[in-house]
Amino acid sequence: MEEISKEQIYRVLRRFGRLDSREGEKVDDFLALELNRRKEFLEKIVIEKTAALAQSGPEGRLRCVDRNGRPEYYWRKDGKDVTGAYIPVGKREFAAALAQRNYDQAVLNYAKEELRLIKQLAKKRAAHNIENIYEEYGFARRALVNPVWVPDDEFVAKWQQTKYKKRVFKEGEPEFFTKRGERVMSKTEILIANILSDLGVPYLYEYPLYLTARGWIKTDFTTLNVRTRRIRFWEHFGKMGDPDYCADRLEKILDYERDGYFPGTHLIITHETQERPADTRLLEAVARHYLL
After folding, report:
1. How far apart are CA 265 and CA 281, in angstroms?
2. Cβ distance 162 to 207 under 8 Å?
3. In-domain check, residue 178
């Protein structure tokens, strides 16, 4: 079956109000992915239910009647049979088979109809989409408009130019520098920063964030998933073997959650102890999972 592009999905979801229209938000690739997953699910259902209905089984419809809380079942052999023949209690297996067959037919009909709509969407080609309008403009025209969406390179460049007060290192503090010449606080932060750089993930080191319980804090890394344009805060807890440090960091996670920043959705958490140092393979896996 023909793959569905994110532009096609964008048009339909925008029409029915199912797509966030915040300024600067690009169409998430996961929309196309989810719709294609839905298509695959429906195709599987059609195959399974078609095979099930091809097997021998009772024809007709099941009529259910509630007799003061006691169900009674009737077999309507065809459309003209309004009342149907009573199915005795001893033949409930027959009633169950008839009910399942009716259910399978209904599921098959709905799955086919939904697939038809998805196929119809896949065949429609938009001459333009709102992402391409701005990209097709020349430099002079771009300078005059305020677009609802900008290309990734422009978006990332503007995001990384965000101005904020950076850490002033004290004399005598360890000197750790990343590939891009940025000074950080620990060797593991070097690893994380370099992994982000190698993967092309934009980040801001120690960007300030306000938490109600703590006031202004410096998150280790504020990261940007370019594909989804979602921001996540990456906190690395490097001394979890220290009981006091561990207790404070666990409380810090709760402080994040109290302000609506939840691990996995808004917050990435990695950790290590002196006995179990950070694994670069896992750090990279985490970055790939959340940020690509």
Report:
1. 22
2. yes
3. yes
Q: Is residue 224 part of a domain?
A: yes
Which CATH number is 210's domain given?
A: 3.40.1350
Residues of the chain with pLDDT under 70: 1-32, 124-129
- 265 shares its domain with 161: yes
Tens digit of each residue's pLDDT (9 = 90 or more) over 137-186 = 888 998 899 988 888 999 999 999 999 999 999 999 989 999 999 999 99
Q: Are residues 121 and 215 in the same domain?
A: no
Percent of the residues in the chain that have a pLDDT greater than 70, as a whole number: 87
Quick one: 162 and 263 in the same domain? Answer: yes
Give Rg (Cα) of the chain: 29
Supply the pTM of this predicted model: 0.64
Using a CB cutoff of 8 Å and minimum separation of 24, what contacts does 149-153 make? 149/24, 149/25, 149/26, 150/24, 152/26, 152/226
Q: Does a structural domain hold residue 72?
A: no
Name every residue whose Cβ is closer than 8 Å to that of residue 32 and which is 6 or more positions away in sequence. 3, 4, 5, 6, 9
Range of the domain at 32: 6-57+94-130
**What is the chain's mean pLDDT, rounded?**
87
Write down the pLDDT at residue 221: 98
290, 230 Cβ separation under 8 angstroms: no
Gap between the Cα atoms of 84 and 64, Å rounded: 10
Contact 58, 49 (CB under 8 A): no
